[in-house]
From TrEMBL, chain A:
It is found in: Cell membrane. It comes from Ancylobacter oerskovii. InterPro entries: BPD_transp_1_N, MetI-like, MetI-like_sf. Gene3D superfamilies: MetI-like. Belongs to the binding-protein-dependent transport system permease family. Keywords: Cell membrane, Membrane, Transmembrane, Transmembrane helix, Transport. The lineage of its organism: Bacteria, Pseudomonadati, Pseudomonadota, Alphaproteobacteria, Hyphomicrobiales. The keyword Transmembrane helix applies. This is ABC transporter permease subunit. The keyword Repressor does not apply. It is a multi-pass membrane protein.
Automatic annotation (TrEMBL), chain B:
SMART domains: AAA (SM00382). Keywords: ATP-binding, Cell membrane, Membrane, Nucleotide-binding, Transport. It is found in: Cell inner membrane. GO terms for molecular function: ATP binding. This is ABC transporter ATP-binding protein. It is a peripheral membrane protein. Belongs to the ABC transporter superfamily. InterPro entries: AAA+_ATPase, ABC_Ni/Peptide_Import, ABC_transporter-like_ATP-bd, ABC_transporter-like_CS, Oligopep_ABC_C, P-loop_NTPase. It comes from Ancylobacter oerskovii. Residues 11-259 form the ABC transporter domain. The lineage of its organism: Bacteria, Pseudomonadati, Pseudomonadota, Alphaproteobacteria, Hyphomicrobiales. Its main location: membrane. Gene3D superfamilies: P-loop containing nucleotide triphosphate hydrolases. CDD domains: ABC_NikE_OppD_transporters.
Amino acid sequence: MFRFFIRRVALTLPTFVALMFVTFVAVRLVPGDPIEARTGERGIAPERLAMLRHELGLDRPVWQQFLDYANGIVHGDFGVSIVTKTPVLSEFATLFPATLELTLCGLAFAIVLGIPAGVIAAVKRGSVFDHTMMTIALTGYSMPIFWWGLLLIMFMSEYLGLTPVSGRMDLINFYFEPVTGFMLVDSLLSDQEGAFSSAVSHLILPAIVLGTVPLAVIARMTRSSMLEVLGEDYVRTARAKGLSPFRVVGLHALRNALIPVVTVIGLQTGTLLGGAVLTETIFAWPGVGKWLIESIARRDYPALQGGIMLITSIVILVNLIVDLTYVAINPRIRHG
Amino acid sequence: MNATSTPLLSIRNLSVTFATGRGPFRAVDKVDLDVAAGELVAIVGESGSGKSVAMLAVMGLLPWTATVTADRLSFDGKDLLALTPRERRKIIGRDLSMIFQEPMSSLNPCFTVGFQLREAMKAHLDLDKTARQKRAVELLDLVGIPEPERRLKAFPHQLSGGMSQRVMIAMALACNPKLIIADEPTTALDVTIQAQILDLLLRLQKDSGVGLVLITHDMGVVAETAQRVCVHYAGQQVEMQDTRGLFRDPHHPYTSALLAALPERASGRILPSIPGVVPGLADRPAGCLFSPRCRFATQTCRTIPPPRAGADLGYALCHTPLVDGHPRALKKLEMPA
Ligand SMILES: Nc1ncnc2c1ncn2[C@@H]1O[C@H](COP(=O)(O)OP(=O)(O)OP(=O)(O)O)[C@@H](O)[C@H]1O
Ligand code: SF4
Ligand SMILES: [Mg+2]
C-alpha cells in the first residue's frame, strides 16, 4: 500500500511539468495580449506600449518568460494579476470555495440520484423503469450544459418564480462575512433567518445543471457494473444464505459494483470542475470559472496561467485520491 | 424409495425451462427425487445434463429467465413452491444449504471470511455477537482450517481453492442444516486435494447425520458412499436405483454404457466418456434423447419418447430397459401412476 502510494505520487510529477508547459503556451495562443485587450480600439502610443510591455515582462524572450513562470510556481508563486494587481493565488483562494461548493453539490446530486437509479435499473432490467431511466440518462448526457441551464432558468426562475436567476446569495437582505467560504455553511453560521434557504435556492439550479452529465454517467455505470456483479457466484452464495434481497443487492452486490463506479466518479470530478466554468457563467456564480472566463477577455496571462494551473492541479489531486480510495475499497489490491 | 417415512426432500416431475434468445429451453425435464433424513443420494450425468439447474431450482436460486414447475417440491413437510419468498428465505441457508462448484468465485471478494460466515448465523440463529464469533471459530476448526481466528480475518483472495471450499462447507454447516446439496464440490480443485475435501464432507455428513445430495462426476465416490444414485441425461432422469443395484445391474442403456466405460469399474475417478455428445437445444431427437448414442436403439426409440419403468427396473426411461445387460420390453402396466 505504501509503495503503491509513493509510485502513484511520483507518477503525477511529469504530469505537472507538462501541465505547466501547456498552460503557458495555450494562454499565449489566444490572439492579442493584455495591453491590446485593455486599450482596445483606442490605440496606444508606441512608447507607452513599449513601457507597459516592459513593465509586464512581455518584451523578454518567451522561453525566459516561461522559466520565470516555472520558477515562480516551483516556489509557490503563481504571479500577480495584471488587472487587479493582487496575487493570483489569493484571488484563487477567495473564489475557489464558491466553485468547490457548487461542484460538491453537483456531485452529491449526481451520486445521490445516480447510484440508486442505476441499481434499481439493473435489478429491474428490461422494465419500464429501466428503459425510462436509461433514456433520461442518455438525454442528460448529450444535453448541452448551456442550453440546459437556460432552459431551467426559464422554467424554474422566470416562469415558476421558484428560484433566483443568478448569484450565490440575496445580498440585498443578507450580509455576513465569509468564514468558510461555503455559502451553505456561512449562512447557517450567520444566524440570520432565511439566509440558509436563500443560499440553497441559489445553489439548487446550478448544482442540477452541473450534476446532470455526471448523474447520467454514474447511473449508466452503476447499472452496467451492477448487472455484471448480479450474475456473480458470490451473489448466488449470498442468496443461498437466505439473506433479504435488500442485503444481497445493497451489500453483497453493490459493494463490488461500486469499485468501478468510484473510479468513474473521480474521473467525473475533472469534468465537473470544467463544467463549473460554463455553469458559473450561466448563473453568474462568482467562482473560479467565471473569473477565468473574465481573465480570458482581459488576456490576464498570470491569472489565466495560474488559475488553470491551480484548478488542473486540483483535478490531478482528486484523481490521485480516487486511485488511493480505489485501492482502499478493493481488498484484492490492498493485500495484493 | 422409502414409502413408510416421509422423505426430507421430495420432488416429483420437476421441470425447468429457460427463456432464451432462441426460444424456450428445457434444461430439466420431469425429474423425481426423494432424500430421507441423513441419507446420501448421488446425482451423476454428463456436463449440461441439468444437475445443477435442478438443484438450484430446489434452492430457489435460478435467474428470472427460468420457469420452474413440479407436481411436488416439498422439503421438511413444506411445499416450497407455495411459500412466499420471505418464508422460503427462512429455510434456505438454515435447514437447506448448498455448496457450489466454484469455491473461489463463490465467496465475496469484498468481505472477510469471518463476516461471510457469521452473516448466515446472524440471519437464522439466535446468537449474539460473541457467540457467533465463537461458533465461527469452531466451524473453521471443524473443517480443518488451522489458525481459525486468523483465517476469519482473511479475505477470500488470500485463500487457496481448497481452503475456500472448506470455508464454503463451514458456511453450509453454520446453521445445522437438515440437508446439504453439494454441487460437484471438488471439480474445480487440484486433483491432490479433491480427495481431502470429499473425505471431509463425507465425514461431516456421517458425524452430523445431515442429508446430502452429492452431484458428482466421480463414479468411484458414488460406489463408495451413496445410498442411492440418480442418473441424469440431457435434462431427464434416466435411472434411479440403490447404489449396489445400479452397479450390479444397470437398467438404462446410458447407465450401462457409463459403467462399461469405467476403467476397471470404480478405480477410474472421472465420469467416463462414451461416444457422441449430449443433444443441445437444436438437435433434440424426436423420440428417446439417448437414441443417437444408444446401441440398443430401435425405430420406435427414434420416434416415440420412452415411458418410465417401475421401481424394479430403476425407473428407467427406456422402451426396453436392460436386465442383466439385455433389453427387455416393458409391460404396459409397469408405467407409474
Ligand atoms: N441461466 C441459464 N439460461 C439458459 N440456459 C441455462 C442457464 N443455466 C443453465 N442453462 C443450461 O441448462 C443446461 C443444464 O445446465 P447445468 O448447469 O444444470 O448442467 P450440469 O449437469 O450441472 O453440468 P455440469 O456437470 O457441467 O455442472 C445446460 O445446457 C445449460 O446451458
Ligand atoms: S429408449 Fe431406446 S434408445 Fe432410448 S435408451 Fe432405451 S433402448 Fe436406448
Ligand atoms: Mg453443474
